[in-house]
Design goal:
By secondary structure, the protein is α/β, with parallel strands linked by helices. The chain has eleven helices and 13 strands. Bound molecules: NADP nicotinamide-adenine-dinucleotide phosphate.
Length: 346
């Protein structure tokens, strides 16, 4: 779910290579197509487990599966359903029940009121999904992609998976959509895993919107607040790889038992001061840094964006084994951002 989105499209590419069968829920936008590829096999996943996918292999796999695409046949390896999470008839999955449902679909809202409505619609939609799951003989594992803004501005604190939630910024309203999932997780009635990534960087989303465009327009690197705020990162391809890795790792330890419900913090870098981040960007773009105060941010974008761009948190994890067993495709922040900038400049 959400396979056309920023996170979902990366996840979809990894799943196309690793899953035996894949069903996508297409809402408005077509699931992101990786474009053209010459040849290859859908099962060419040797050596790619537990790390992010190489994009060429993904294109090849997608092409191969695309030719077998079917909306009706339960035996097809790739099935595309159409609809909204608010109305989709989940019983349609009973023909070919999934083992895992990856949920990266977020109903968007532009302003505060619209996000409140979106959050409430998300809450109803997710309650309906969980209700369907509760009637299955063997409920699939629900992997729900949330974010770390739900922890709020935490200064220099290390935030672990069991830390208290104090949602700020966009999450003040979007967390409503997560309530039902959180409740199912806490009550341990259904198998639920919540993923809370930090700043996800890739060619799109916040990096393109608030940094790349500004840099191209002004020739300067924007830096916000006093620069002391701590940031944690993961490349969008690594996030996808990490989610599958964590799911497989926990499945091996009986995660489908709701008693083992958990939350996962995926990150490659944690606690990087904002001033260090903009210094890296300055080296990549070869442009000077220009500082903007919080009041400038608030005036230009409003409180919600100001909070998102200046909050401070060092993400930590209690799942050391999962973290250590994952081989990051982008273990160096400067190399990772250089790749993203090159993608954006194509
Ligand atoms: N982007 C980040 O840096 C970041 C950081 C941390 C956490 N996250 C979390 O990751 C999750 C996904 O975020 P994203 O950035 O990937 O969002 P996104 O790019 O806006 O993608 C949202 C996806 O949800 C789908 N969707 C929207 N309404 C739907 C509906 N009613 N029914 C079915 N699908 C629907 C969209 O499809 P259509 O376009 O077809 O409507 C799209 O595929 C969110 O929970 C977010 O909080 C993101």
């Amino acid at each position: 779910m959400g396979s056309s989105g920023f996170v979902g499209s990366s996840l979809q590419y990894v799943l196309i290579q690793t899953a035996r069968k894949l069903q996508l829920l297409q809402h408005r936008t077509l699931p992101a197509s990786p474009g053209t590829a010459e040849n290859g096999s859908a099962n060419s996943n040797d050596g790619i487990k537990n790390r992010a996918m190489d994009s060429t292999n993904l294109k090849i796999a997608y092409r191969s599966l695309e030719s077998q695409l079917s909306a009706d046949s339960p035996s097809a390896p790739l099935i595309i359903h159409h609809g909204s999470i608010t109305r989709f008839n989940w019983a349609r999955l009973e023909k070919d029940p999934p083992e895992v449902i990856y949920h990266a679909a977020r109903i968007p809202g532009r302003g505060r009121f619209s996000r409140l409505v979106a959050g409430l619609r998300g809450m109803r939609a997710n309650t309906r999904l969980l209700s369907w799951m509760s009637h299955q003989k063997r409920a699939p594992l629900l992997v729900f992609i949330s974010g770390s803004l739900v922890y709020g501005d935490r200064g220099t604190d290390v935030v672990f998976e069991d830390s208290q939630l104090y949602p700020i910024s966009f999450q003040r309203q979007y967390i409503l959509a997560e309530r039902a999932v959180l409740s199912a997780q806490t009550k341990a009635v259904l198998p639920v895993m919540i993923i809370r990534p930090p700043w996800i960087y890739g060619p799109g989303s916040w990096f393109e919107q608030f940094y790349h465009r500004h840099i191209i327009q002004t020739g300067t690197i924007p830096a916000f607040g006093n620069g002391d705020q701590l940031m944690s990162f993961i490349h969008v391809d690594d996030l996808a790889g990490y989610i599958i890795h964590a799911t497989e790792y926990l499945a091996g330890s009986g995660h489908s038992d709701p008693a083992n419900n958990t939350t996962i913090h995926p990150f490659s870098h944690s606690g990087i001061p904002h001033r260090e981040f903009v210094r890296i960007l300055s080296e990549i773009y070869q442009k000077p840094i220009k500082w903007y105060s919080e009041s400038w941010l608030q005036q230009k974008y409003g409180k919600t964006v100001r909070e998102a761009l200046t909050f401070s948190m060092k993400l930590g994890t209690r799942h050391h084994r999962i973290h250590e067993a994952y081989e990051f495709a982008w273990p160096c922040l400067k190399t990772g951002f250089t790749q993203v900038v090159e993608e954006l400049q194509k």
